[in-house]
Amino acid sequence: MNITQDKVVELDYTLTVNGEVIDQSEPGEPLVYLQGHSNIIPGLERALEGKAVGDELQVTVQPEDGYGERDEENVEELSREDFEDDIEVGATYYAQAEDGSVIPFTVMDVSGDTVKVDFNPPLAGMVLNFDVKVLNVRDATPEELDHGHAHSDGDHDHE
Ligand SMILES: [Zn+2]
Question: Which Pfam families is this protein grouped with (predicted)?
Fold first, then answer.
């Protein structure tokens, strides 16, 4: 069975940026996603289209097909008073938007009462290198199609 629209795919992956491993699936805990529903970044989803179990591939994803380009307008200065307790440079914090959604950001610098933060995704602007092995491909269940994502055994509950 090949990877096409609406297939549920299991794969092992290693993500490397500038020769450094940024992320990888744990042994026995593959990434499970639903093809064609933007569950994963577009460049990787496109490269996997048509592949089959056992296929191994190396995929280079440019920023526009990954997490987008960096936008310096997304670097902002906040007041120290907006933070509780200690601030750790390099750490990820979460802001709540007016619509209730949660937006992650990274603290870049603290100077006096000013905290410089970056709302760009950490991998924005980066060329991503994926080493991928396809472990399993199956049809999605009607429920998975309805939800637009894969359900692997007990990995999430639905109310
Ligand atoms: Zn679901």
Answer: FKBP_C
